[in-house]
Design a protein that fits this description.
about 150 residues; alpha+beta; GMP Synthetase, Chain A, domain 3; five-stranded antiparallel beta sheet; 8 strands; about 40% strand; globular; Ribosome maturation factor RimP
Amino acid sequence: MATLERKLVEMLKAPVEALGHKLWGLEYIQAGKHSILRLYIDNEKGIFIEDCAEASRQVSAVMDVEDPISTEYTLEVSSPGVDRPLFTAEQYQAYIGETVKVQLTMPVAGSRNLKGTVTGVDGQMLNLSVDGNELIVALDNIRKGNLIAKF
């Protein structure tokens, strides 16, 4: 996670939790005037559109005061959904035995895109079983990770 994203998580965690939700994670996608700050909120009872709207208002107010992003951006707030993005070691740990897809910054076993079963988490290292091979991936090498939904 980039430094700005870490700062944003720290800044926005309390306002989201004050609404009774958990800040699951966030993504900041820089693209000039089309940059996006995407927050994922979660709750044991589920997330509804009203929850997203309320969190958006709360987060917007904090962002206006703190102003950590000097350029234009669009704020999006949503639930993580069934193919939820994974951001932390704790989140990967919670999905041991489940299938995930990860996009890497640097290749592991010759690939930047891996799909496999989470077999463990050791500190900041993710253990994945990919096509019968056990791979170890540093969490800071994961650009994007998502749970693969089972239906």
